[in-house]
C-alpha cells in the first residue's frame, strides 16, 4: 500500500483525493492529513474514516479536534487510534515531512502559504502530487533547488496533468524508471486551455460592476472560491502559464492559452513535426488526482470517459487580452523570473480577498496586481527569507493601493 500524506484535506482537491483513495481499497494508506482548521467536523470525520494517525492544523484548536475525533469514534464504533495532532503555522510542513520516500504528498492547500509544505515534501524524496500551483509560482527557484530528482513533482492541476501525459511521447531521458520530460527540443508549443470563466465574451466595460456571486459561478468546474475567482479574471490561467513555464522549462512565448468553453480538452502539446496531442475527459479532477497518487500507473474507472454515442462539438476561440489582461502580465512576469512571480501571486491574493470582501471592484483585481508588479524591482531568490520579504512588500503595497489598512 502506498503511503499518502494529504495536505488541505477538507478542500475541493482534498475531499476528491479521499474519494479516489476510498474507491481503491488496499492501494493507499493515509498517514497524515492537514487543513487550516476551519472545518474541524469534516477533518475529524476524515481522520476516523481513514484511520489517520497524524493530523495537522494551522489554528490552535487541538483539544477541540481531539474531542471531535473521539466523539466520531464513539458514534461510528471505530476502534480508537493513538494519534498526534500538530498545530501552528508549520504544522502542514511538519506533516509533509513525515512522508517516506516511497510515498506521495498531495498538496491541496490553497495559496502561496502552501510553499513551506511543498519544500518540506520535496525534501523527503517522496513524490509531490502538486495541486497548489501558487507554491510553485511563488517559490519557483526554491522549489527547483529542493527537488531531489527529475520527475519528483507530478502536476495535479488539470492542464499540467494533461501536458504531462501528452509529453510522455517524444524524447525521454534514459535510465530512469519514471519517464522524465526532456523532449523539449521537439516541442513547438504547449497548448493551455481555459474555460474563459463566467465572463467569457464580455468586454472590459461590461466587467466594471460584476459581483462576487457572478464571479463564483464557474461554467464548468466546481472548485474552492479562490481558484474560482481566479478563473473569472483569467488570473488562474496567468498562474498556470507560469506554472507550465516552470514545470516544463519552456519559454513563456511557447505557451499558448486558448479558450475552450467546454473544458473537456485539458491542454496538450504541439510537436515540431506539426502533430498536436491533446488530453480529454469530461471535466473532473478525479483523473489528475488519481494520476498524482499512482503515477505512472493508471487506476481503473476513476471518472466517466467521453461518450461518443450522441453528437456534440467542442469550441475554441482566442483570448481577449484587452478585457482579460492577466495573461499578458503573466508572460512578462514569467520572463522576469526571480521574485516577480511571487509578487504577482501575493498581490493577487490580497486583491482577490478585497474583492470577496467588497472592498475592490472586479477590474481592480488585475489592475492592482499589475501596478504592484510594475513597481517591483525583480531580484534573484536563493533563500526562503528573501522570498518572504518580497511577499511582505507586495502584500503591503497591494493593501495600500486598495486603501486597506495593513
Ligand atoms: N479545486 C479544484 O478543482 C482545483 C484546485 N487547484 C488548486 O488546488 C489548490 C486547492 O484548491 P481547492 O481545493 O479548490 O481549495 P479549497 O479552498 O477548497 O481548499 C483549501 C484547503 O487548504 C486548507 N488550508 C488553507 N490554509 C491552510 C494551511 N495554512 N495549512 C494547511 N491547510 C490549509 C483548507 O483548510 P480549511 O478547510 O481548514 O480552511 C482546505 O482544506 C489551489 O492551489 C488551487 O488553485 C487546481 C486545479 C483544480
Ligand atoms: C480544474 C482546473 O485545473 C482549474 O484550474 C480550471 O482550469 C479552472 O478553469 P479555468 O480554465 O476557467 O481557469
Ligand atoms: Mn487548472
UniProtKB/TrEMBL annotation:
UniProt KW keywords: Isomerase, Isoprene biosynthesis, Magnesium, Manganese, Metal-binding, NADP, Oxidoreductase
GO molecular function: 1-deoxy-D-xylulose-5-phosphate reductoisomerase activity; isomerase activity; manganese ion binding; NADPH binding
Residue ranges annotated for the DXP reductoisomerase C-terminal domain, each copy included: 281-394
Pathway stated in the Swiss-Prot or TrEMBL entry: Isoprenoid biosynthesis; isopentenyl diphosphate biosynthesis via DXP pathway; isopentenyl diphosphate from 1-deoxy-D-xylulose 5-phosphate: step 1/6
Broadest EC class assigned to this enzyme: oxidoreductase
Positions that bind NADPH: 10-13, 36, 39, 132, 134, 224
Signal peptide residues on this chain, from the entry's feature table: none
Matching Pfam families: DXP_redisom_C, DXP_reductoisom, DXPR_C
A GO BP entry: isopentenyl diphosphate biosynthetic process, methylerythritol 4-phosphate pathway involved in terpenoid biosynthetic process
Residue span, 1-deoxy-D-xylulose 5-phosphate reductoisomerase N-terminal domain: 4-140
EC number(s) on file: 1.1.1.267
Reactions catalysed, as given in the entry: 2-C-methyl-D-erythritol 4-phosphate + NADP(+) = 1-deoxy-D-xylulose 5-phosphate + NADPH + H(+)
Residue ranges annotated for the 1-deoxy-D-xylulose 5-phosphate reductoisomerase C-terminal domain, each copy included: 153-248
Keyword flag Magnesium: yes
Positions that bind Mn(2+): 157, 159, 240
Binding site for 1-deoxy-D-xylulose 5-phosphate: 133, 158-159, 195, 218, 231, 236-237, 240
Cofactor or coenzyme needed: Mg(2+); Mn(2+)
Family: Belongs to the DXR family.
NCBIfam families xref list: Dxr (TIGR00243)
PANTHER family cross-referenced by the UniProt entry: 1-DEOXY-D-XYLULOSE 5-PHOSPHATE REDUCTOISOMERASE, 1-DEOXY-D-XYLULOSE 5-PHOSPHATE REDUCTOISOMERASE, CHLOROPLASTIC
Role according to the record: Catalyzes the NADPH-dependent rearrangement and reduction of 1-deoxy-D-xylulose-5-phosphate (DXP) to 2-C-methyl-D-erythritol 4-phosphate (MEP).
Protein's recorded name: 1-deoxy-D-xylulose 5-phosphate reductoisomerase
Organism: Boudabousia liubingyangii
Gene responsible for this protein: dxr
